[in-house]
Inverse folding.
């Protein structure tokens, strides 16, 4: 388990997220990524290696948005690859999830979702979450997350956003650490205090 954080407010989330990820580096990790929603586009940039390496690959000037998620991964399910790095999308590239922890019953959920036609792009336990939320989604992300969580067992801290409802970040936790920070016209969440202290 490594780190997650998220931001929603009036400022560009990208530098805030990259800065926050660097504050979580002390925990050790193998890959990093960020997701941003800007108007009708939801963008994920991620790769193996350090935040600094991933940062070099991200065209900071072209990435801009006032809501976003970030993750540094300590792989538990699936090898250290770009595909397995977080954040993860659903099939439609509309719902985005970052996760710390382990989904214990992911194999059964994955088999059920594949039968329903979902296409997976990673080997992670985490990727079942955005697809399961997609399965329940009918225009209400909070309701869809609540329904999905009834089917999931394991430890998790989750950050969830969707480009269909770009005015909210959903956070949930079970066993894994998660804190919420309130700023001026902005909200933060993170797996540990240093990420949002500034
Ligand atoms: N179990 C997830 C994975 O292997 C999350 C790992 C983490 O907490 O960083 O991708």
């Amino acid at each position: 388990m490594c780190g997650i954080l998220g931001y929603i407010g009036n400022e560009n989330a990208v530098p805030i997220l990259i800065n926050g990820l660097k504050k979580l580096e002390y925990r050790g990790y193998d890959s990093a990524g960020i997701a941003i929603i800007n108007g009708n586009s939801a963008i994920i940039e991620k790769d193996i290696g350090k935040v600094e390496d991933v940062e070099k690959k991200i065209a900071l000037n072209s990435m801009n948005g006032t809501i976003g998620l970030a993750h540094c991964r300590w792989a538990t399910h699936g090898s250290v690859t770009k595909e397995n790095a977080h954040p993860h999308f659903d099939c439609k590239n509309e719902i985005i999830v970052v996760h710390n922890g382990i989904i214990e019953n992911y194999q059964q959920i994955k088999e059920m979702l594949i039968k329903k036609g979902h296409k997976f792009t990673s080997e992670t336990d985490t990727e079942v979450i955005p697809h399961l939320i997609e399965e329940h989604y009918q225009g209400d992300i909070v309701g869809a997350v609540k329904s999905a969580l009834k089917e999931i067992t394991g430890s998790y801290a989750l950050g969830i956003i969707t480009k269909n409802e770009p005015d909210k970040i959903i956070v949930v936790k079970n066993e894994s650490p998660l804190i919420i920070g309130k700023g001026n016209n902005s909200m933060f969440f993170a797996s540990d205090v240093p990420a949002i202290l500034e």
Q: What stands out?
A: The first helix runs from residue 13 to 23.
